[in-house]
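Q: Joint fold for the lines below.
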Amino acid sequence: MAECPAQPRSAETAPPPRRPPVRRHRTVAIVGPPNSGKSTLFNRLTGVRQKVANYPGVTVEQRVGRLRQAHDQEVDLIDLPGVYSLEPRSEDEQVAHDVLKGRMPGVRRPDAVILILDSTNLARHLLLAAPVLSLGLPTLVVLNMADALRDRGGEVDTAALARQLGAPVVLVSAARGEGLEPVLEFLTGELGVPRPVELPVIQDVPKCREWAVRIGARAGYRPPAPPVWTHRLDAVFLHPVAGPLVFAAVVVAVFQTIFSGARPLMEGVEVLIERSGAWVAAALPESPFRDLLVEGVWGGVGSVVVFLPQILLLFLFIGILEDSGYLARAAVIADRTMARVGLQGKSFIPLLSAYACAVPAIMATRTIENKRDRIATILIAPFMTCSARLPVYTLIIAAFIPERPLIGNLLGTRAAAMLGLYVLGFLAAVMTARLLKSSILKSERTPFLLELPPYRWPTLRSLGLRLYDRAWLFLRRAGTVILTAAIVLWVLAHLPLVDGAAPPIEASVAGTIGRLIEPVIEPLGFNWKIGIGLVTSLAAREVIVGTLGTIYGIEGDENSMGLREALQQDLTPAGAVALLIFFAFAMQCISTLAVVRRETGGWRWPLAQFAYMGALAYAGAFVAYRLVSAWTA
Amino acid sequence: MLLQLIFTTEPASAGVAAEPRTLAELEEGRQAVIEALEAPPDLARRLMELGFVPGSSVITVRRAPGGDPRVFRIDGSEIALRLETAALIRLRPSGGA
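A: Joint structure:
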């Protein structure tokens, strides 16, 4: 801590009269290798006050957050992508390099840098210190995972390391929030330029390594013992037979929980929405506005909000898999399979996260160095069953498939149907990848290099932050896209006025649109009401649930039927299967199309993708309808 | 897919007593020292950043289901590489062992 500010400040006492006065606004970049706990530190320092945007021209996410305890000073933190060096080769490295050099358009050069390194892996992580320190920006070196270093019997002399690096060094545990005070002091205090004792030639990696080892030795660094538990767990998770079985078991358990575990919570939300809707209906005088509110907003938006618990549960599982370090093992297990379809294990991670949402997944493809592999991964990502499909699947499955135990209490028919749809999406993705990689996107096999971080307990804090983010995003979508769709639909379903009253819904504008496309979708077993839903779901998949909610809300008499019962009257079982298949394949998401356009730099790929997925959806639904019709006839 | 993974047989291992020449031939649980990287410059650099620097010692920790990729411990961390990549990492002859 050689150059930490001399007097630690506390908020109550002296407001520091410093000379020269500290700038009131400061930007600090956090840089570090992958798995150094960079984002944990960032979250720790900024909490929920973050903004996610994209750097202009590239697809790398820019996360900016404002510091919490900033006293009289505003400090904006930039979370840079995880990099091993500042050589601009991949897009991530390019961004880190450009931001730190002040060459990123629209981003001011940071006033200071926090370099975060994994203290259990110091010899290797110190490699990044050389290029970062040579930037000449005030730098704080944060050695993270102090708890793991201590528990596994390693040690490091931070004062000695600070002397070697000519910059303050602190030992923290970002996950546990230990030792962060000096970080806050650095962020708000006076800044000094680093004066390292020696720096290697940055381009020469072996020289850099010798340097890192030497510096580590002078700082009394003793690496910790290998993580025992990680070793034991990997013996199971990467076992030739047990590994894949455990993987399958985890997946099945997740599905069963999402399907049946979320049930009580969802019913709770449902009751809440019904009661509040009834209360609004009773409290307001009869008017078109009341009808709009009850049928459009409560019927439309409400029927989507019901799925919040289920989606949060899915994200909880994904969060646990990601934070614990299991995802990297899954990528290793999957590499061989991915290689068979012409992709590599690294493509597996974006694909897994596409189970949550294709948009962040497509952005996550930036870690794939090979451009053709990357485009192939982008093109197949929307086949993975994203959380927006969950409400649609749940609704239709609950309406048409009776719940029976399949494997004792472990797996029921409904969860199995859901699992089947997930597998279907995965197979469509894999086949498409194979098709692409053996034709237009053919390329050399690319190397697969992946670090397997030690397992860690996911912290409640980080999981909570994820769920908060996700809930907010979901509700914001319900409040914007779905609300707008519901209102527009409600209005269209009430026009044109006949003698000052709304027409029967078949004769309304919405009904006319539905009837117009009915001939096209009739071969799939869908009527005009489903047709309206298909049109509105082009904006986002789950909108169809809201749309049907609104339509049935308008149609419904006093003792209106539930959405499930209403659907049973409008769809045959064959039509229901066809609808599920249609949603499994079709690209009904404006956000995804927009992000694909931005990623691939033009309309060519997103349009081709939209057409391909649409054709597959139509063909798949058609075949499914015929087959199931013949079966049940 | 999973079934395929489980039942794929592992590639037959090379000669029994032969000394491993590349990292791909280093048996599970054995340790060796890296002599040189015979990879294209970009890949070599990436490997070195992950710790595969000539002179470093490396252990084959385990094989993924199917034998490929393999997990190596180097420098306190575990890195997964495909065999085809590991074959580009030449090992130092142990000299008499």
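Q: Anything notable?
A: Confidence is low (pLDDT under 50) at residues 1-19 of chain A. The beta strands of chain A are 25-31, 50-54, 61-66, 74-79, 112-118, 139-144, 169-171, 405-407, 411-412, 449-452.
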